[in-house]
Design goal:
- The structure is a single chain.
- This protein is mainly beta.
- It has a single domain (about 5-90), classed as Immunoglobulin-like.
- It is built from no helices and ten strands.
- The protein has strands spanning about 5-10, 15, 20-25, 30-35, 40-50, 55-60, 70-75, 80, 85-90, 90-95.
- Strands 1, 2, 5, 8, 9 and 10 form a six-stranded mixed sheet that branches. Strands 4-3-6-7 form a four-stranded antiparallel sheet, with no helix packed on it.
C-alpha cells in the first residue's frame, strides 16, 4: 500500500479558486512531483504512490507578499492526504482536508 496526495489553492482575497499555481512536492532535496492547479484551483492527484515519511509541499501562490509557502508533511499511514492552501494578499492557512 501507499499514500496519495491532492491539493487545492483558494484565493480568499479574490473569492475564487486560484488557477495556474505551481505546486511542488519534495522528499528531502529530491523533486518527487510538480503541477499547476486547474481552473478549479485543484490538483486532484499530485502523486499517487508515496511511501511513508517526510515531504515538503511548496506552493507559489498569487500573492504580492508570499512568494512561496512551504509545508512540511509527515505521511504516516497508507491513506489519501488532501492539503489545501487558503491564501490572500497578506495571509495564508492550510489544513489536512478529506
Amino acid at each position: 500500500m501507499s499514500a496519495s496526495l491532492s491539493t487545492h489553492v483558494l484565493d480568499t482575497g479574490a473569492g475564487r479558486p486560484a488557477a495556474g499555481v505551481r505546486v511542488e512536492l519534495f522528499r528531502g532535496d529530491e523533486l518527487v512531483a510538480a503541477g499547476e492547479t486547474n481552473e478549479d484551483g485543484r490538483i486532484p492527484r499530485l502523486h499517487g504512490e508515496l511511501e511513508r515519511g517526510g515531504y515538503r509541499l511548496v506552493f507559489h501562490p498569487p500573492s504580492p507578499f508570499f512568494r512561496r509557502v512551504e509545508l512540511e508533511l509527515e505521511l504516516d499511514e497508507d491513506s489519501h492526504y488532501h492539503v489545501p492552501l487558503l491564501v490572500s494578499p497578506y495571509s495564508c492557512a492550510s489544513y489536512r482536508g478529506s
